[in-house]
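I would like you to sit down with the record closing this message with an eye to the fold:
=====
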Amino acid sequence: MSIKKLGEGQYLVDTRPQGRNGKRMRKRFDTKSEAQQYERWIIATQNNKDWIEKPADRRLLTELIELWWKYHGQTLKAGKDDYQRLNKLAEDMKNPRADQVTKSSFADYKALRLSNGISPGTINRAQMILSGVFSTLIDSGHYHSQHPLKGISKIKKTESEMYFL
């Protein structure tokens, strides 16, 4: 991996990003900064294979909750309460694998909780916390699939009538 100055005022990038037995990349540039940017880009993108599908995440929901707690949850003011709610949610959903948490599976969970007499506000809070788990893990690079709860609407609550003295 080197950048050499040529006699004509140009710079030659000569690199093998996959090691000495890998493909050799050579290119000329007018400025040294362009050459350095190209060299960094080649090294960074050479091993990215975007056309290959990533395997399904087979970790359990409780494992994702533990990761969330480790990296983000313990820093929150109400983190311990959220952690307990998430573990209860995972137990109620029968602790699915991460690839099994989908919009339809969460809709089934919401319907089950509503039929058990749980208030819409409590269910919306659980949805918000679980959505935050996936958002945090995606942002930190610990979860690579699509956000499974993105686009799920919250349950509309009926506003109670105000009473005045």
Observations:
- Strands lie at 2-5, 11-15, 25-29.
- Residues 61-140 form one domain.
